[in-house]
């Protein structure tokens, strides 16, 4: 008998059924839609501060093609750092990571998400591709590969739905407040880990963060991460890269609360300061939840709580 | 239709078959048993430095009760930090974590595994239960709950196999070199996060680390982590606690290489400086691999490489 | 003409006159004796918290032998870290620093006075002899040289006046709260920079800090620092060592407020959390001021303000 | 008798005599002029790497107006960070520090001279005006006060001698390698501690560093620091500000070797990576020494050694 007698770990292909999952999502909306403006919004990004604190949407895109939605799942929001998963997927798609992983590590940061400390201490190699310094390196890498890095990220995000666009006013406002990211980019350049001009890299980085999409469309866009690299529009990355993106999301995707989130939710996830969280159930579905008020780590308070309940009630935790 | 129509994420119950898995383990022994003394051994623990560098064992304990072994899987080795999973399981078993999690965080450390920096910066709350400071707090917590903390850990480790014992010479030698752990314990005491005398806590902590067992017996002992909290001798923790132990292992179990290990292997794991690694395949099995030479992070070089190949060839990654 | 035609930088030998200086000290008492309990006292040392917050004393011991006193200058207080200057003088007196300076640096710490961070980062070499870690190394060095380190420090302190004694109750209480210092000592031992047992070194260190003396007697004891190494009882250190002790006091003597103190006062000084400050006017006198309430850096609020006014009105700044 | 009966600490007004001091400087040239290229030069500034390693010059400008010179004292070199003393003097001259000292601290940095760590940890307030971040804030402050900040610094440097000019090629090359300083400036802007555009501040900062002058002319320019604020061309700052500049130089002027330099030399000093050091003997003279090879802290190896011998043979230490 050969080694193929060891079966792969099976994965769900079952259709959970519209009524059951749909009703569960409605439950989550009732239980988690905020009634008070708890937590905070990013002080440095004016247009994010103006979003109604009662907003709450959730959507699940199944591998089967169905999409379940509830609450404000059709309302566009600013994806912010959720876009980092997509730029990383594109960068890895081009070289499988052989070049990229010599320029950025894959370890949880252990400190605040935009810290310069680690970068300086470790000679210009960012701790992981989801902290700002690492995302700038990924963007720089992607500019070399495709030229229009932010355009390519937008195309990948919008491919399944045909929707998604840069909010130009928000982009301009955010670009004007890019002191921290410019500092990071110039420091990366000084430490020899930036190939394109600091201004250009920050431009593409901020632009991809300024994309606005709905929960339903983000879930569709992220489905390839749950389905062995294949999305609604075809293959995006290899199965091996899809698995590895999941690993990076689980260990590094929630700023410096990755451990807490793995403990409470148990799904590979990536959050953005726009209040969105994209979560992956390998082999089953992609989930996107959105509610704008953030905890001290920069993660959506209501979004995280809803995902914890979703994981508990479905048993979808990967652990 | 009700919400129960959302199926739980299915898990493998298939018996992979003795010949297939057994042959695969033999392959791993052939491919990964070291021929040269690469890497290092802990300079501070004399008896670990004396172990033959060609040692390599691997064992898989299936939920079905079968145990597959290859190489030096029956040779006892020093479990060291692998014991931290078991003391954590006992501490959580007593109060479900309600008390413990106010004394220790659940985040990846992001720095070397025995650093004092974070502890001081965060006012005595260790980053996670697997760094030394966190393990000392877990031990202190367990002393309050059961008195003989290290004895209880040894009983849990030895329960399935009836084997496992403290190496008293090694224990005495290691206790005599406990300056770093004494420093951590006194600092925890100064910061108000230790209830028992520093000397007593360090004594129990070093003693549980000095237990010697074989790969096969460690795999049996860890099976409850893969099987919803139930081991060969009955229930150890609730299904929810078992899942959460897996989450803490994945994000914090490999010192400051947790992200890299999740990326390459994709299984919740805990390593020890004795060269052992315990890995969990939820719903399927527990794996223990051992080879004494360590990389710069303190993880077994050959053990990590073997687990990466095992995960790749079986598809057991949780991502 | 020879190089001796370059004159040494002259120093005051003038007697400033009892009435003038005495009146100035009385002015300082009137202006700086606290009426309210501003600032803080060390929470970890109970007997220091009980001292009346209106206490304020100042004394000036002239090279001529005269001593000017005002306010509570005759009331004993806990010298605490002021004793570190005297243990350092003894340690340097024995080997001129040849051995000691390989075990401790001479740089300002730049961080809180009892931080473990720097010690770990710099492999066990404390930043300077006045932070706690450095003082423990000095004590360890002195134990090797003289055996009864704290006894020798007390003898040096008490030599000019015949007064000064350990407050045994305070010593016992402080020793029972030595978690932080025990942590430092065990860490130093682990990093190979301690020769005597951690407990013994901490014992001597805490004991020398528990000496109680009056401002007048501390000023007499410190006069050798201002007078080329010669005190009322004869030579203590060489002129070169006296100069260098002044340099270490100026750059490292006021915890992490050394720069601010040099800017405002301009005199080599050493403070203690008992509220005392010993300041040196090279070639002229030694000053001791005492008032128990501390600023955020651990320095006496009223004492620092009084020294700033004294330096301004006398022109005694070394700059 | 009144308080004025307390005499100010006297200062030397004696003319040390040309032959004695001149001969001593010649001794220093013989003893300290390098014969081998020990140490290093700044890799990031090409034109500094080209300077002959045997260069060594020293000059002493007396309060009496005489200037003693030896070795390459008439050869222009790049003043680099020595210029920071002059921009600080100008900034303090405008507002006495009332505004400036709320934007920058006065503490030794305790870390490498261009570290971003401290800046981020302390919310944008640089540790002192001589680390790069602090010098950028001083430059920003001076731009607000006088507009052409670097022009004003050059005028102050050149005032006594009529010599001194920006090396335009060196300026252009250094400006093109300003990644680290741009990072600092953008970070300061992000943290709210920069009023002018980051590019403009870096431009003026780099420009003042690119001034070239001889030891003799730098000593003349720095004489006001030793002479109560009055230079050859008249008053530059008040006596109080002159004293305080000396205090900042002593505690912060030698990068992170300030403590060591105070111990060995005992004179307020400021070094630059061009190999120059300006040292002050309060009430007596200003000294400038230059030799291009640097130690690990960025200070001239031969220059520091020569100043240590000068201080020892003259007794000019302030301690």
From TrEMBL, chains A, B, C, D:
Keywords: Acetylation, Hydrolase
Molecular-function GO terms, alphabetical: glutaminase activity
EC number: 3.5.1.2
Catalytic activity from the UniProt record: L-glutamine + H2O = L-glutamate + NH4(+)
Organism the protein comes from: Sinomonas halotolerans
Family stated for the protein in its record: Belongs to the glutaminase family.
Primary enzyme class: hydrolase
Organism domain of life: Bacteria
Hydrolase found in the keyword field: yes
Binding partners and assembly: Homotetramer.
Region (Disordered): 1-20
UniProt binding sites for substrate: 81, 132, 174, 181, 205, 255, 273
Family matches, as InterPro entries: Beta-lactam/transpept-like, Glutaminase
Protein name: Glutaminase
Pfam families linked: Glutaminase
């Amino acid at each position: 008998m050969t080694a193929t007698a060891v079966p792969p770990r099976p994965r769900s292909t079952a259709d959970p059924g519209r009524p059951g999952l749909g009703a569960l999502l409605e439950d989550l909306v009732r239980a988690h839609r905020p009634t008070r403006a708890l937590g905070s919004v990013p002080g440095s990004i004016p247009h994010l501060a103006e979003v109604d604190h009662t907003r709450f949407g959730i959507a699940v895109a199944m591998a089967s093609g169905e999409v379940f939605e509830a609450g404000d799942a059709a309302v566009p929001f600013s994806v912010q750092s959720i876009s980092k998963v997509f730029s990383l997927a594109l960068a890895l798609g081009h070289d499988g990571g052989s070049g990229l992983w010599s320029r950025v590590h894959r370890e949880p940061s252990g400190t605040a998400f935009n810290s310069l400390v680690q970068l300086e201490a470790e000679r210009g190699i960012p701790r992981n591709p989801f902290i700002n310094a690492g995302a700038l390196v990924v963007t720089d890498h992607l500019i070399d590969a495709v030229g229009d890095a932010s355009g390519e990220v937008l195309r990948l995000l919008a491919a399944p739905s045909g929707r998604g666009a840069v909010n130009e006013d928000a982009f301009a406002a955010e670009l004007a407040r890019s002191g921290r990211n410019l500092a990071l980019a110039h420091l990366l350049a000084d430490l020899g880990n930036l190939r394109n001009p600091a201004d250009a890299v920050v431009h593409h980085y901020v632009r991809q963060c300024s994309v606005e999409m709905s929960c339903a469309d983000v879930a569709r866009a992220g489905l390839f991460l749950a389905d062995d690299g294949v999305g609604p529009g075809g293959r995006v990355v290899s199965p091996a890269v899809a698995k590895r993106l999941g690993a990076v999301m689980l260990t590094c995707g929630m700023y410096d609360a990755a451990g807490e989130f793995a403990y409470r939710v148990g799904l590979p996830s990536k959050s953005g300061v726009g209040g969105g969280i994209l979560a992956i159930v390998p082999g089953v579905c992609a989930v996107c939840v959105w509610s704008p008020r953030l905890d001290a780590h920069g993660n959506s308070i209501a979004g995280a709580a809803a995902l914890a309940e979703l994981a508990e009630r479905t048993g979808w935790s990967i652990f």
